[in-house]
Structure formats: structure tokens, C-alpha cells
Amino acid sequence: MPDFLLNALLAGSALALISGPLGSFVVWRRMAYFGDTLAHASLLGVALGLFLQINPWLTVMVGSVLLGVLLMLLQKQQNLASDTLLGILSHGALAAGLVCTSLMANPQLDLFSFLLGDLLTATRSEALTMAGVSLLLLGVLKLAWRPWLCMALDEDLARAEGLRVDAWQLLFMVMLALVIALAMKVVGVLLITALLIIPAAAARQICQSPAAMAIGAAAIGVAAINLGLAASYYWDTPAGPSAVLVAVVIFALGFAARRSQ
Amino acid sequence: MSELIQLDGLSLQIGGKLLLEQVNLRVIKGEIVTLIGPNGAGKTSLVKLVCGLLQPSAGVITRAQDLRIGYVPQRLAFDATLPITVAGFLALTGSSSQAIQQAMVRLQIDDLASSLLHALSGGELQRVLLARAFLRRPSLLILDEPAQGVDINGQLELYQTIAQLRDELNCGVLMVSHDLHWVMAKTDTVYCLNRHICCQGAPELVSQHPEYLQLFGQNAPAIAIYTHHHDHHHDLHGAVVPHGGQASSAATKRFSPSTRSHSCNHPHTTPHKH
Fold this sequence. Notes:
The complex is a heterodimer of chains A (261) and B (274). By secondary structure, chain A is mostly helical. Chain A has eleven helices and no strands. The longest helix of chain A has 30 residues, at 124-153. Helix content of chain B is 33%, strand content 24%. The longest helix of chain B is centred in the middle third of the chain and has 18 residues, at 152-169. Chain B is globular and about 50 Å long. Chain B has two domains: 3-68 and 138-260, Rossmann fold (3-Layer(aba) Sandwich); 73-137, no CATH class.
């Protein structure tokens, strides 16, 4: 197996391991659109990184965390319809990101690689970094599992029982921002949310407990990445979109299997 | 007397709308306190203030140092994509599986252990939520209209269970209820709420109070009508028999807030008529 493919498999699989379980929470808490907003805004983070000449990953992470916290505060106002608000911010940020990157006219900048991912160019050290971060995030997820699950069931109940909901919510935002920053490399800005919600939705078709669904989503995500990369290798299709397409097919199969029972 | 919670001069204003005004209320250990009042009276807001889910615009809430709240909401706000069984839900309290088993037996839901939470009926869900509160060994049990969505036979049992849990846990109980039969039979203190506290005290006293009569019907054998605005009754075998449309719509109309608008901004030191 060529080295670049091995790196891609390692990086992609590592991301899928964490994006599946985290995506389950995104699905349970009906935050798909929220994730979309963070994802689209990450392009603005890239532009900022290039402008300040620091690592775009860093600006994307910091930017996403800040935006996530801002959204969290805005949603507390409750006098703005939150899907409209998210829609405005999401597409506003994407448009701003596209304009900014084009204004900079940086010859090194390949806009397509940010929009659609460039998993096949991952270096060994990038892949190892992603694997390390993913493992770390899995550890955090295990720690936050019970409080997050209580919040997904009923935030009021969790709060009344004395859970520090705001602190756990902040941790969720940070983790979501980190995963989005990682996923940008794998599937690109436009398809990040797909990697969060499609494996989780597919796992829901066959799983009967939260833990099973989280593990199932991780497994389906890993399978989708690997099959997508295989397709990319043999038929020269773009890697990220191929992986998302495989996830959609798995979801459709699960959906059909469940309906026919 | 050991106060579990005490509210002094509590007001709540949201978006320019005054939902609660100068509310004083307290719950002591072992006491069952019931909040009654028409729709939109602010009962749920008051419960949320006590639980710390809302912050008051004015006034003070004093909580006992060792206050441990067991909250039973009307329903859970979770998505059906979250597949969790009753046993899994109860396990989130961190209790031992033995304690969970005992709680399920105690609340008669042990046969539901592997049922999915979102597939439960209203009455079953209330029992599960009670079991969860019970596992936390609360010093104050807070329930928001626990009998809503529970059939009439189930309601009586549910209320009895709540009274028994009070004895077993020696906790205070604060609950919102529409069932005046229950209020009269089992409650220690009633607070009649219509944005402000109209009257309070032992059920027998409150039921004689002019403001209570004003709110709940003065020209009728009030309690009986208010208690059962069901749209059906049960025959001897327990099957549902629907009422004629007329009777039930008349009963609903009597208690809609629009026909009994009650608003006043003066202090309520003496009984009065509007």
C-alpha cells in the first residue's frame, strides 16, 4: 500500500472514531444545523490564519470555539428564531470566508482543498497528530458521557438535579469545534456535518442503546472512510465526498432493512 | 421547623410581562404543598424558579443547605433518535443496579425495564421520572402536574404513591395540581396562585376563601366541576365512553382564563370581591 494512502486511512479513521460518537450527541440534541454553522465559519478561520500567517488549524479551532460560545449565548436570548439566526451566520460566514480567501490571492491557497478536503495529501505527522487528538477526545467523551446524555434527555431536569449544564455545554462546544477543525482536512468545509450526523443516523437504525449507537456510529464512520478511500484510489473520485456517499448508502441500507422488518 | 425552601417577595418578569408578583411561599420538611391556579397563572414558572431553572427579577429564594431536589417534569424534551431504555435512563443517576431494581419494583415499573423511554405512556413516564427522583433520595420532591396524561384510575394511584414517597423519604413535596379532590384529601398546605398568591393555608380554609371561589367557580358546586373536565368516562369494565360534545365543551369554557380574567395590582391583605 502506498504511503499516502496509509496516512489517509489513519487520519480518516481516527477522525471517524470520534466524529461518530460526538455526532450521536449532535443528532440527539438536534444540533445538526449548529454544526453546519460552525463548519461553514471555519473557512473564515482559514482565511484568518493565512492572513496572520499562523497555522490555519489553530485559527479554525479558536474561531470555532468563539463562534460556538457566541451562538450559545445568542440562543439564550430566545427572541430570535434559532434556525434563522444559524442560517444567517452559517452562510454569512461561508460567504465572508470565500471573499476573504479570494482577496488574499495567495498562490499557495487551494480553495477546493478546504471546501472538499484533501485527505490524500495528509503527511505522516499530520495523520499521527490526528490519531493522537482523536484518542484524547475519546477520553474526554468518556468523561463527559453521563452529563451530556442527561442534557440530551432534558436540560431542565439535568439543571434541576444540580448538573453544571453551562460548563458541560461549553466543553461540548470546544469538542465540536476541535472535531470540525480536524474534519476540515478529511472531508472539507462543505461536508463536515455529514461526517457527524450520517454515521449516527445510520447507527440509530440498528442500535437500541445510546452506547451502542455511539460505537455503531464510530464503526460506520470508519467503514465509510475506508471504502471511500478505496473508491478514490481505484476510480480516482474525490476522497471526502466518496466517504460521505458510502455513509449515505449505509444509512439507506439500514433504513430499508428496518422498514422491511 | 426546618424550612427546605422559602421564597420572599418573588417577582418574575420576562419580556416586559409580569408573570409572578410578590410571591411568598415555603415548604417545610415532611409537608405536601400544592399549587393550584388557572392556566397562565404562573405555576410552572414558580416551579422553575424553585428548581433554579429561572432567575427571579426581584425577591429572595432561601434554600436549605442540604437541599436535594428531585424534580419530576411533565415530560422529557428529548429526540426519538435517542434510544434509551427505562433501566438505562435510571442508571444515569449513578445508582447501583440493585438500588435501581428496588426503585423499579417500588414504583411498579419493573416490567418496563427494557422498554424504550420514548415509547412510554404518560402515566408510565411519570412513574419512571418518580423512580429517578426517588433514587436521588431527595429532601424536596417537585412535581409539575404529575397526573397530566394519566387516566383517572392511574391518577389516584399516582397521588397515593406520591403521598407514600413523602412518608418513606420524609421529604417535602411541592407540586402543581389540577385535581382539587387530591388537593383537599392529601395536601397539607394549598397556595392558590394567579400571578400573585390569592390565598393560602390548609385546604379546608382555602376552599372557603372568596378569592378561591372567584377563581374556581362561585356559582357552582365548584370543586366537583373543576376536578373532572374529562371528555369521557369509564363503564363498569373500564372501557372509555365518550361524553356528548356539549357537556364537555361547557365544562372547558367555564374554566378558560378568558371567561375569568382576574387581574389586580393591589395588596391582598383582606378578602374582597372584584
